[in-house]
């Protein structure tokens, strides 16, 4: 790993990453560290966070961690405050924490639905509430959030997850427009299937499954280029876009055919 130098992608930025103990979040932390960024990792798993930070720092990086349940507003505020106290600013915040899982309406369980929305939606709203004032004071900053290419249409068994990602997609689209004049970039990240612990539980076909290391590179490159939307891989992004225009009766018919 390297420290800051003259190239634009090696500037010693400060990056806060939620859900950084495993999966995409972990790889984002390593990718940012490889570029010389100072990184603050947070998630609920202290043991994994400590191991990730140790590995990054052994390779010459500059990483710190703090445990944080993103559904707890006080803990999220503490993580942001800790980042500011440690590094002095937040240049990039990647709101990566999220959960999935199958949820069926036939055996409706409000608790599981609430948990998905608390983690995938409400925590992002809390994050925006805390981060926007910080970046307004700085006069600059980037807020990126991990959404999904599956945020376009309902898929049976995944209603809450897809609805949560769709809600955040629309929220961030509005934030992108409104916060740009304040010097704050908002990035919507929409990956396809990524080889993570979350998807390891998925028993369905996952076309164009991508390694999390590759996904992290694509995401960081897109953030540094100030792209408001990072959707990948391209063929899956095309399929996602096409699905928007399929008439509802055809969509319902597709999922009735076995």
What do we call the CATH topology?
Rossmann fold
Topology order in helix (H) and strand (E) letters: EHEHEHEHEHEEHEHEHH
Relative strand content? 15-25%
CATH class category name: Alpha Beta
Largest sheet: 7 strands, parallel
Shape descriptor reads globular
Oligomer description: single chain
**Regions with pLDDT < 50 over 5+ consecutive residues?**
2-9
Layout of strands and helices, then pairs:
Blueprint: E1 14-18, H1 23-34, E2 38-43, H2 46-58, E3 62-67, H3 73-87, E4 92-95, H4 110-138, E5 141-146, H5 159-179, E6 184-191, E7 194-195, H6 197-200, E8 210-211, H7 212-224, E9 229-232, H8 234-243, H9 248-254
Parallel strand pairs: 1-2, 1-4, 2-3, 4-5, 5-6, 6-9, 7-8
Question: Can you tell me about this structure?
Answer:
- The strands form two sheets. A seven-stranded parallel beta sheet has the order 3-2-1-4-5-6-9, sandwiched between helices.
- The chain has a single domain (8-254), classed as 3-Layer(aba) Sandwich (Rossmann fold).
- Residues 2-9 have low confidence and may be disordered.
- 39% of the residues are buried.
- The protein has 258 residues and is α/β, with parallel strands linked by helices.
- Helix 4 (110-138) links the parallel strand 4 (92-95) and strand 5.
- The chain has nine helices and nine strands.
- Helix 1 crosses helix 7, helix 3 packs parallel to helix 4 and helix 4 packs parallel to helix 5 (159-179).
Give short descriptive properties of this protein.
Rossmann fold; globular; alpha/beta
């Amino acid at each position: 790993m390297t420290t800051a130098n003259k190239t634009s992608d090696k500037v010693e930025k400060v990056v806060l990453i939620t859900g950084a103990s495993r999966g995409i979040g972990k790889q984002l932390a390593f990718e940012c560290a490889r570029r010389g960024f100072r990184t603050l990792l947070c998630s609920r798993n202290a043991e994994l966070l400590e191991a990730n930070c140790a590995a990054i720092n052994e390779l010459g990086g500059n990483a710190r961690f703090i445990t944080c349940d993103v559904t707890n507003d006080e803990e999220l505020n503490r993580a942001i405050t800790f980042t500011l106290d440690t590094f002095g600013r937040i240049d990039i915040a990647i709101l990566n924490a999220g959960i999935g899982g199958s949820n069926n309406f036939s055996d409706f369980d409000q608790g599981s639905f609430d948990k998905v929305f608390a983690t995938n939606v409400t925590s992002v709203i809390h994050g925006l509430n805390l981060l926007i004032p910080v970046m307004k004071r700085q006069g600059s900053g980037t807020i990126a959030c991990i959404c999904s290419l599956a945020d376009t249409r309902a898929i049976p068994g995944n209603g809450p997850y897809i609805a949560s990602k769709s809600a955040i997609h629309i929220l961030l689209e509005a934030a992108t427009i409104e916060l740009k004049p304040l010097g704050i970039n908002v990035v919507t990240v929409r990956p396809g299937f990524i080889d993570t612990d979350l998807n390891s539980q998925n028993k369905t076909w996952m076309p164009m499954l991508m390694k999390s290391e590759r996904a992290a590179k694509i995401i960081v490159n897109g953030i540094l280029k100030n792209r408001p939307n990072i959707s990948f891989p391209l063929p899956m992004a095309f399929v996602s876009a096409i699905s928007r225009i399929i008439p509802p009766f055809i969509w319902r018919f597709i999922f009735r055919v076995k």
